[in-house]
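Task 17 of the worksheet. Students: predict the tertiary structure of the chain below and write it out as structure tokens. Keep your answer in the requested format; marks are given for formatting as well as content.
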Amino acid sequence: MRLARREAGWALAECAPEPYFNLVQRYVFAPYFAGTLAASAAEGASIWGVALGSAGLAIAVLAPVFGAIADSGGRLRPWLLGFAILAFLASASLWLAAPGVSPWRVAIAVAIGLFAVEMVDLFVNASLARVAARERLGSISSVGYAMSQVAGLAALLLILGAGGILPGLMPGVPAAVDRMAGPAAALFMLLVLPLVLLLAEPPSGGRGSPVAGLRALGATLLEAWRVRDMRLFLLGRMLAADGMTVVFSFGAMLAAAAFRWEAGTMVVFGFIITVFGVVGGFLGASLDPRLGSLRLMRLGILTLLAGTASVILTDEARLLGIPTGVALAAPLASPQELGFLASGAVVAIGAGLTLGAMRAVMACLAPPARMAAYFGLYAFVGKATAFVGPFLVSAVAAATGTVRLGILVAVAFLGAGLLLLARVRVPATRHFAG
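Model answer:
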């Protein structure tokens, strides 16, 4: 698929946040924080939870506000650049997180970085309708998602390469590879610059008035609730996002517990799942012109449901509920392990289809003059109840003694989200026919 200059700039900017999630929030810096910087793993998990929770709360509360203020001035570029600079500085500062540094100071930097990265993502989303024609929104959104997953893989490979080089270059620097996760994530923020340079802005745009923005936000909230399709879409997105949060948060934990996979195998698992996320993104870009974004979004959620159900039905002795008669031995050698890996791949493909199409539907439903405010609501509903799913999983696991049954919560959320999203309609065009 050939991209115009602005579309390519947008797709590159879409890549900027993902390395922070992979390197800092998930795979590299988070284990270092809990295992080295904190006095104990329990203390590390507690402080880390406060950091991520604080960032999530700030995102949920402030994303609609900043979006509305940006819309009141008509300009997205200053906000995008400003938050990219903040994300760059906060990420780069993690190099200073040497053993012995207060974990609370580091946690503050992590929280600021996560908040800034999510704000970059908000304004990249809000700019989609400015760079792509309506009939290309779904395809460009899916391509951007796929490229973001490629960026996440590239970031992991960069750190793996650094693991073989930095100890020789910096023999006296403790935990150099772990600390390099922050600066490496910061480098990817530079991918925002082409979009900043190419993004079209209205000639009369100003800085945006906080008072006017907040008034507009109130009107946006009332309008979003009154408009049937927007109300259904936002509620459906909230439920579907909660379901995906459960799958992504507990799926790897379930695999490690069931198959006794150690760190090396889990890294392989993560790489494979991310690769299939790339596949899902590019597949969505191919299917969107044929199916339309609404149908593609629903197909994605159905795929997520199928993958989640197969995850629940596969354990150390069974594949899709059927005993294999094969005992666990070497990692990834039994049919049930390979089946679980295939289930995870289905989930990743479903996520790629869903997220790319869902963003395109939002760009179609939202009024062009208030795109940033509506994508602020989009970010809000994706975060506002993210704690509910994990809490319910915890309650079910405590009552039943197994995390596996707890993941049924994801099936319930995804199913309820699909029922609401199935009723959404958008302004009549062939591309978005529902």
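Marker's comment: Residues 429-434 have pLDDT under 50 and may be disordered. The chain has two domains: 1-200, 223-425.
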